């Protein structure tokens, strides 16, 4: 989908939503978002900050007292991938829990005693564990489950009626099925329990709902201007050098024009969304095979839109 000034100007689907049933994809299909979930987690934290219930400068030990070196790791470090905490997706023991029903505390306990990769604020390294911790903090502070918080404060508020916390059990209307590609052809995606990626990658949505999300951010429907700017600012490491990540978005450029972008990858699905603020252009691509990343085509279309749309 390509949208400008809040309205879709092009949208199209290619291929199959379900290979076994031979059902074509449509632009209304529901896809797993993977790490685009992090946008929602970051905004949920900022909603709580705006409500006065937490502060991003606070140490995580305030909420999780027994977290190792938690007095040196702030919520800001988690949001910006600068905490140095071990990313649980890189742990060899991940397969032992991948299909288990995990509580957020169990997930945190799974990685919290791993050796750190670096000291907080020393470098930027993309990290799913930090966003699992954020989901846990959201639950502790709000006294709602992460799923309830996102539904009550974001999805329901914005009319994102085809967006969900992912499930393989519940009947999801217009669900796109996810696939891997092997040498012998396509196979159904590997099953994981969504309590494992949790707030780092467990949401589902449609392109139309994601446009509602993008428009709501622009119109400050969820956050005031000051909190919104925190999500889209660049920050500095301890040594004063810049890095290109805000809170839940990569802060980049296309041919010198600033962009806010984020992709996602989870078994069977890959996603990419690019927003160009000064032209109010939003380009989003979803794939229901993790063999096909939509990043290049979404970026190429964003470049085209930038040239063609005034």
Features:
Beta-lactamase; six-stranded antiparallel sheet; 310 residues; three-stranded antiparallel sheet; 28% helix; alpha+beta; globular
Main sheet properties = 6 strands, antiparallel
| Helix content range | 25-40%
Unreliable segments (pLDDT under 50, ≥5 consecutive)?
none
Mean pLDDT: 97
Spell out the CATH superfamily.
Answer: DD-peptidase/beta-lactamase superfamily
What gyration radius follows from the Cα positions, in whole Å?
Answer: 19 Å
Q: What is the CATH class?
A: Alpha Beta
Structural features, described:
With about 300 residues, the chain is α+β, with helices and mostly antiparallel strands. It has a single domain, classed as Beta-lactamase, CATH 3.40.710.10. The protein is built from 8 helices and 15 strands. The protein has helices at about 35-50, 75-80, 105-110, 130-140, 145-160, 205-220, 225-230, 295-310, and strands at about 1-5, 5-10, 15-20, 25, 30, 165, 180, 185-190, 205, 235, 240-245, 250-255, 255-265, 270-275, 280-285. The strands form 5 sheets. Strands 2-1-15-14-13-12 form a 6-stranded antiparallel sheet, with helices on both faces. Strands 5-9-6 form a 3-stranded antiparallel sheet. β13 and β14 form a beta hairpin. α1 crosses α5 (about 145-160), α1 (about 35-50) runs antiparallel to α7 (about 225-230) and α3 (about 105-110) runs antiparallel to α4. This is Serine hydrolase domain-containing protein. It holds the Pfam family Beta-lactamase. One of its GO terms (molecular function) is hydrolase activity. Keywords: Hydrolase. Its EC number is 3.-.-.-.
